[in-house]
Design a protein that fits this description.
The complex is a heterodimer of chains A (516) and B (245). By secondary structure, chain A is of the alpha+beta class. Chain A is built from 17 helices and twelve strands. In chain B, α1 packs across α3. Classes of the chains: A alpha+beta (516), B alpha/beta (245).
Chain lengths: 516, 245
């Protein structure tokens, strides 16, 4: 039974948070089908990762909060970007729980303290990260992800360089984005966690802006990028892309987007390039001094990333299946590790290892079982634990299915359950050990140096003076010196806006762009 | 006999797929035995030291029992079948005479323009005109390495098994077009072909197209959206064989 007395309200809220993820899990997965790869046993490693999340997240997320609260991590993530943690933390974790329920290894009542905590952590992080739109998820915003405040958007809007299909900048940007997207899939063993999009943001009646984040490009946490990523000078890159003549009508919690009409290269009419991490105050422009410089920068990065892609592909094509399984599972499981960097408590032993409790199940995870069991869990929603009574109608399909099991309320009276999976257990890995070298915006550091720097660093927009100065405060105080100071922080590296302060409107920015 | 909670289930009784049911039942059976042997309440057993007696060796034994019955797994990653040929079916990846023969692939005799319908797929991006090229199967890392070393032959429309972006990563941008037998227009390969501006059909159901055949793909067809998938709307683009290779 639980160490703390459970309440009815706690279970009601937790089941609600579970259900919000359940509906979206089906929708997201049904539009993708089961992912397969000739190189990676993808479904098998996904299942492996779910188990690792179930056994390790409760302890690791609590460890983060010993250093920084989930909501403060949300503030930092909003300021410096983050991978796709929105859907992944709760769903990977809960799908691990679902697997174990179907195996009879746990009951739906077990690990209740852990689940309540993980879901509450996720909720607080999400609410903070989504502070500027008030939603818990993109799904709740009808699949829209407006994360950034006006002062950041004004800089992105102002400094983006115009381009047209066929010109040098457009060609360079388009080539770069294709190359980096492909590298991202390879780095993350066939998944999309290194690429994240948010927006759209309205630029004019005919233009919208999409912000695209490409993360973990250089030598950082993944052992397979040691050496391979050495010549990529930025670990994270952000491309803001202005689109004309289309409406981004869907941006989901995986960071994928759709548009009406469908997006084509000719719709891209302006671009900008930045780098940021948890040690930057605000995004740092990359090659943004002129159109020519930006074109050359895209071309240079494109060549570096292409070279790294070929090296990485050759390395990965030579891996054993166990190495592939470990790497893929660790990419999925460790999606939350960026939070550990933000909090300054990252340890490779925590995030780059398969827990020994997870490891027990490795022999089950052949390709066929992996594909079919994952397909049942997230596509067909057909495992026994997911079947409901015949009157039940699941969102999207109307079938009597529910993707994720609730906690039964009867457990308030029945105490034969274990509230937590308990402390961390040792981990194993078939991959080479990680070289103690992490590329950050402040240079290459050891793990210890990086953690220390992270603990000591507070980005200016997140310090006590500015942290609570939200859009609703700006609305009524834009004419104050404090608002000017807040905006000037963002404008400090801006080509067109440096020192302009808080009074500009979107139309003013357009006028400044027209003047050049 | 000791029962687990999930042994009593009014609505769910077994998994859809036999191999899933076989494995899941075997793990449940193991848990029944270990729980009975522990002689403790569930709350003390489930995450306690007794549960740790469910071991990797137990899971290996579950697999061994299935293999002993003659069952062989269908591989998806190349490494699986290469490392354990005794456990996996031969995927025929190196058969030079291979062709996809998908159930439900639409086929028809040659039309007035001499185009023989040989399949259909989900169009990723609509282009003004259809496109033709030489069909070439790309199913192994050896083939990719060959292309990486010697270059991709001109006019190649690559036919690939699955919707991943990793197998073809170093050579994808050199393809004229892609026919993918898996995935959807929101899968990774679809995202990448869109970024590279390479015409692509996902979820392709093909029949009788062999390496070297000249094919035409209907990339002028409507692109299939996420909403189409969610509501089961068919938006297939056709694939024709023009000449035998």
């Amino acid at each position: 039974m639980s160490g703390n007395k459970l309440t009815y309200a706690q279970l009601l809220e937790t089941n609600n948070l579970i259900q919000q993820n359940a509906d979206e899990t089906y929708w997201l997965c049904a539009t993708r089908t089961v992912q397969e790869s000739k190189i990676f046993p993808v479904s098998a490693y996904i299942l492996f990762s779910y188990l690792n999340c179930f056994y390790r997240y409760p302890v690791l997320l609590k460890k983060l909060e010993e250093h920084m609260s989930a909501e403060e991590i949300g503030d930092r993530a909003r300021n410096s970007g983050i991978k796709i943690v929105a859907w992944t933390i709760p769903c990977f974790y809960l799908l691990g729980r679902e697997m174990l329920i179907n195996w009879g290894v746990i009951k739906p009542t077990d690990a209740v303290d852990d689940v309540i905590y993980v879901m509450d952590f996720w909720k607080r992080f999400q609410l903070s990260w989504h502070r500027n739109n008030g939603n818990l998820t993109n799904r709740m915003a009808n699949h829209r992800g407006q994360i950034l405040p006006e002062q950041r958007l004004q800089v992105y809007h102002a400094d983006a360089f115009e381009c047209r299909i066929g010109d040098e900048l457009h060609t360079a940007a388009q080539n770069f984005m294709a190359t980096i997207a492909q590298y991202g899939f390879l780095v993350s063993c066939e998944c999309r966690v290194t690429t994240h999009n948010h927006g759209p943001y309205k630029i004019s009646d005919t233009r919208e802006m999409l912000v695209r984040e490409f993360r973990e490009l250089s030598e950082y946490d993944y052992p397979w990028l040691d050496g391979v990523g050495k010549d990529i000078p930025y670990n994270n890159l952000t491309v803001n892309m202005v689109l004309e003549g289309i409406n981004i009508n869907l941006l989901d919690d995986w960071g994928s987007f759709e548009s009406e009409p469908e997006m084509k290269p000719e719709h891209i009419v302006a671009v900008g390039l930045y780098t940021q991490d948890n040690l930057t105050h605000v995004p740092m422009p990359v090659g943004m001094g002129s159109r020519e410089e930006l074109t050359a920068t895209f071309n240079d990065l494109n060549a570096r990333i292409k070279a790294a892609t070929a090296k990485l592909w050759e390395q990965m094509a030579g891996w054993t299946r166990d190495q592939q399984l470990d790497a893929g599972a660790l990419v999925y499981f460790a999606i939350a590790k960026e939070m550990a960097h933000i909090a300054g408590c990252y340890e490779a032993e925590d995030w780059m290892m398969i827990d020994e409790r997870t490891e027990r199940f490795r022999p089950l995870l052949n390709d066929e079982y992996g594909n079919l069991f994952l397909g049942e869990l997230v596509g067909y929603i057909s495992t026994p634990s997911q079947r409901m009574h015949d009157y039940y109608m699941m969102q999207h399909t109307d079938l009597p299915r529910r993707a994720l099991s609730y906690f039964p309320y009867s457990m308030l009276n029945d105490t034969d359950y274990a509230p937590t999976v308990g402390p961390m257990r040792p981990g194993v890995s078939n991959l080479p050990p990680k070289v103690d070298r992490y590329r950050t915006s402040q240079g290459v550091m050891s793990q210890e140096e990086y953690n220390r720097a992270s603990r000591e660093f507070v980005p200016d927009p997140c310090n006590d003076k500015f942290r609570l100065l939200c859009t609703d405060w700006v609305k009524y105080h834009y004419d104050t010196p404090l608002a000017d100071e807040l905006f000037k922080l963002e404008q400090q590296h801006s080509r067109l806006l440096k020192g302009k302060g808080a009074g500009l409107t979107r139309a003013d920015i357009e006028a400044l762009r027209a003047k050049g | 006999m000791t029962k687990l909670l999930v042994d009593t289930d009014k609505y769910g009784y077994q998994s859809e797929f036999a191999v899933v049911e076989a494995y899941n039942s075997a793990v449940k059976d193991l848990m029944r035995q270990r729980f009975a042997a522990a002689g403790k309440p569930w709350r003390e057993f489930v995450f306690g030291p007794d549960a740790a007696v469910v071991t990797k060796a137990d899971m290996e034994a579950i697999e061994a029992r299935l293999l002993d019955l003659g069952y062989r797994f269908t591989p998806s990653a190349m490494s699986s079948a290469i490392e354990r040929p005794e456990a996996y079916k031969d995927a025929g990846l190196n058969n030079p005479d291979f062709s996809f023969e998908h159930e439900g692939a639409p086929t028809a005799a040659a039309d007035a323009e001499g185009r023989e319908l040989r399949g259909a797929g989900d169009n990723v991006v609509t282009y003004e005109k259809n496109m033709s090229g030489i069909a070439r199967y790309v199913r192994t890392s050896d083939k990719v390495l060959e292309y990486l070393t010697n270059g991709v032959p001109a006019d190649t429309i690559a036919i690939v098994d699955d919707s991943g972006g990793t197998l073809t990563a170093p050579v994808l941008e050199k393809f004229k077009g892609v026919l993918c037998a898996g995935g959807t227009t929101r899968s990774h390969l679809a995202i990448l072909t869109r970024e590279y501006g390479i015409p692509c059909l996902m979820n392709s159901r093909l029949s009788g197209i062999k390496d070297g055949d000249r094919v035409e793909i209907e990339i002028s067809a409507r692109a299939k959206t996420g909403e189409d998938y969610a509501h089961g709307v068919d938006a297939s683009a056709r694939v024709w064989r023009l000449t035998r290779g």
